[in-house]
Amino acid sequence: MSNELIEIDSNALRNLLKHHQMSQYDLAVRLDISTKTIQRWMNQSIRRVKPETINKLMEVLGPTAGEIKRDSPALSLRPTDKAVAEICSERSFQSIRLTDDWNRYLEILKSIHTEALSSEQCFVISRNIGISSFYLGKFQAAKIYLSKAMKYAELLQNENHMGDIRNWFARLDEAVGNLFKAEDYLNQNLQNLEKITRPSVLAEYSYVRGRVHLHRWQNAEAEIQLRRGLLTTLKARSKPYPLLAAWMYLHLVHLYLRTKNLPKAQACCRRFLSTAERSGWGRGILLGNYYLGIIEEFKNGSTTRSNQYFGKARMMHKCTLVDRYCPLLSQAEFLYFTLKGRYAEARTILAHRLFKTRRAEFYLASTTIDGLLLSKLNPGSHGIRKSMITKAKEYYQTQGIQYPLALIEKLEGRTEVSPQEIAEFYYY
Questions:
Q1: pLDDT per residue over 18-32, tens digit each?
Q2: Local structure of residue 421 (DSSP, 8 states)
Q3: Into how many domains does the chain fold?
Q4: In degrees rounded to 5, what are phi and psi of residue 381?
């Protein structure tokens, strides 16, 4: 979890000090901080504090100190700031999604003072900070800023904005492994679907719904939602969303690999790669080559063509810098190393995945299955801990997902798995 900062209202703090007849110096002594810090709170040069600081203020000034949290925005109809509009525009945001430069984008967004901005622009900034935090794995921060964006959306009474934020709340809960809560947000959107008119929000809804069905191994429903999302995306001719279309093609690749429909998986993967190339999405081109190589290996074994795909992917990997952790990329690397019998490197990738996914139960559970598979492929290596396997089983039981439970039992019953059986036992 992230130690996220909370924005404070300097006017509310000033009124509380006046009510308690307390000077800035008195407050500084009680909080054991410098008066300079209090002055910075008052003049808004410091606008955010830690949650622990809010708790200390409540101890000193009483429960009403919670009012200094700036969590109930007022409607502002100020003129649009053109510089901020450019930074937060959909074009700029999509370019960041292509480059994965979320750290720098987050720094820029957090440096913007929102006091002089309209409610519409405050919504976009809060939304984009929340999404940037989500992609960087700062789930608590993402939740705080998306909640703030939802308050602005409700203030503006904009159904498109509210639907967009519900989609991202669903993505957030899906990432941490709470599929029931993700479905609740999606069901809220389903009830208001007729009021949502923006194609990108409708496409994102179908995409997230498809992801949740995919996690639950409801393959037929997942295919319907992903293809519906693709249709919505590709129909938006005036403003296409190629990156979102690429992600949906990639999830269809996973779906067809599950159902052993390799021709369809290969066709979708080629479309995914083509879309990524048209978008200029480096990580997508890398993923496309990895999966085309994996599909070729499953179909025909190690061939010149599969080695060409893997060679392109490995070269792209050396030239592509990705700030954030990508579970699907790590999974593709793991599959590549296991297919090539390079188990030591696969184990290194697996250890990195276990560390990075420790706060996301769904990804941690699927990584645990990969570790169990690797221990059966290479029995001489260190196996996955029993406690992790038990934790993965408990997660799948809680979420009501039966297939991975059966797969774990099947792998536990085997003493060894041959390289030719990877396609059968791998958890996509």
A1: 888 888 888 888 888
A2: G
A3: 4
A4: -85, 170
